[in-house]
Amino acid sequence: MRSAQISRKTAETNISVNIALDGTGSYDNQTGVGFFDHMLDQLARHSLIDMKIRCEGDLHIDDHHTVEDVGIALGQALSHAIGDKKGIRRYGACLLPMDDALVRAALDLSGRPYLVWNMELPTAKIGTFDTELVREFFQALSTHGGITLHVDALHGINSHHMAEAAFKAVARALREAVETDPRTANAIPSTKGAL
Ligand SMILES: [Mn+2]
Q1: For the whole model, what pTM was predicted?
Q2: Model pLDDT for residues 80-100, shown as the tens digit of each residue
């Protein structure tokens, strides 16, 4: 089974991430930030990547370091678990509706971090959660996972729905991209021979 375990400790956060790519989408995520845990659970459930995440962060300041650093550690774990990328589909995309929200995610496990983020959340907060941290998370995931990631909100009026649709869309796209393609099981999906 393709898996990874990452521990990352700084003066701001202490994180452990355990993932298994060929899982069933089981999850056990505790970061101290309720809405963020809800989003990480969606990411696991809809990518079918088993995910156990723990973070003790400096929440007395705000949620920023916790959300960003979990993105960093999860990106590192994904990159490690995917390994040399032999046999993977590499690309994934999903157009995901959730009530008023319609979000498109397209990604390439290219090794070239690039985030295109086209989503304006209509409120500054979801409960106590700063909505600007949704982008921060995906920026960190893209950078440290080596992922070209495009996220576009095509419609939406509710911040919770839009953010959740983004996590679910990226999850479904990730599921597709990390899956092995039986037609090319021993090949790296690039004419360059490396990714
Ligand atoms: Mn929800």
Answers
A1: 0.97
A2: 999 999 999 999 999 999 999
Strands (E), the chain: 3-9, 13-20, 27-30, 50-57, 91-98, 101-108, 114-118, 125-126, 129-130, 148-155
Ligand 1 centre from 38 Cα, in Å?
7
CATH number for the domain spanning 169: value is 3.30.230.40
Domain count, the chain: 1
Domain limits at 32? Answer: 3-184
Give the whole-number percent of the chain exceeding pLDDT 90. Answer: 93
161 CA from centroid of ligand 1 (Å): 7
What is the layout of strands, in order, in the sheet containing 27-30? 3-9, 13-20, 50-57, 27-30
Say how many Å lie between the CA of residue 83 and the centre of ligand 1. 32
Q: How confident is the model at residue 186 (pLDDT cuts 50, 70, 90)?
A: confident
Q: Separation of 125 CA from ligand 1 center, angstroms?
A: 14
User: Rounded to whole angstroms, how far apart are CA atoms 8 and 55?
Assistant: 9
Angstrom CA distances, 156 to 90, 129, 164, stand at 29, 18, 11
Ligand 1 center to residue 33 CA distance, Å?
14
**C-alpha 52 – ligand 1 centre gap (Å):** 19
